[in-house]
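Table S2 (continued). Query chain:
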Amino acid sequence: MSRSKQKTAVTLDGQTVETENSLLGRLHTRIEELEAQQEAEKQARQERKEQRRQKKPSERLVAVLNGMSRRVHGAVMGLLSNLRLSLVLRVALYASGQLLRTTLPMLLAVSVAFFAAQAPALDRSIDRILTEQPAQTNAYDAGQLLDQPFSAVYVLEKPLEDDLRGWPQRVSLFFSEIRQGPRVLLYENTILGGTVFVWELSEPLRILSVLLGTLLAIDLLRVGYFIRHRKRLNQKVLKPITDMAETAATLSANNLSDRISVEGTKNELKDLALVINGMLDRIELSYNSQKQFVSDASHELRTPIAVIQGYISMLQRWGKTDPEVLDEGITAIAQETASMKELVERLLFLARHDKKTLLLEMEDFDPLEIMSELHREAKMLSSKHTFALTPADNAMVHGDKGMMKQLMRILLDNAIKYTPEGGSITLGMKNDGDACVLSVEDTGAGIALKDLGKIFDRFYRCDEARKSQQSGHGLGLSIARIIASAHGGKITVRSKVGVGTTFSVRIPTLPQTGKE
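Corresponding output:
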């Protein structure tokens, strides 16, 4: 028994549910839709094939040639992209290409100039012909046109108009017989009426073809000369680039002072050489600075390590039985260890600054708090000096409070080190317009004028500082200047030998808010 394909439904608990016949009916409908879609696609493919068969042979040939052209062009471009041509050959090929690009416009200009040069001779021939009357009715015979550039001259029954309305007719007449042979028809209104001169172009075109062929051969000869003598181009034009490459290839840490010679170079190549030399100057300066920094750091670390090794050796020999030697050795090792720790911390600070990873915890604070804390700490650190804090107005700055305190502590420590016992050290603070000036003034030995420009250099210590046997590494003022610059400020110094030194730090302040 066949099953019905009609949709049926039953009701269960108030809901309509499709039966098996309904599901089979929907499936049959979907199958019919898919078959109809496949039939339509098949019919469309048949129509496209029929259209391709009905195309003209010429159209099919053009399509095949276009496909072949695209494949050949892709293959040639792929081959050229894989070739590694020398710079000299590429320059020669480029110059040759530019020359060939101008060949066609040059030939066109020569052709125009050639035909323009024929105009005076044509005018003279026309004047000589018009001095005679036509031998035939409204036409000149061959005898009258002997040794003339015209093969025929005749008079029109109805002359053309002289105004702009006659120009389209003249142009049409000019090219009317161009397909019958290399000739054009010149028109001129004369006493005889509208006269037509048939100018044969066979001889002018032969002369022009010889001239253009000669010019084209000369251009091709110049192209071949460029490519064949490309070494001369290398010697005269590209030699500075070769010298630059050779100099750059020989550069190393041992000869960073070598530079590219700018003699004989001109214009852009000279500018390039100067730029590269400037870059080498900066590299050399940076390398020498780094080399000096490593050397100085190694020297500063070598001294405390040597002291520690010496005391360890002494303790191994006598420290076990002699309490005084033991105490002396432990104290010295502790001092040198603290000195090394301070040096390493300062080196890490400079390294973070050089790598642009120095982080500041910015906040708003009153610098007077820092100066007051330093004043209290100084009096506890040294009882052999007199400390003073000048009265100052309150100010607000935006910066890293810990860093600012480190900056002023560096200046204060230097003042304590290089001020003799009984000397005075004054901490100062004052408002100066839109800035706050923090200062440390001492009555120490002072700094010589020749040393003032170098005291902020890393590891620099003047002769007086080395003779004083004071501990230090020559990094404090470098760090102080870095901190001041990071806060948009600067450090200045005034000093006189035998009188004292004053360091001043100028930091921008926050704008004052008006009182309500």
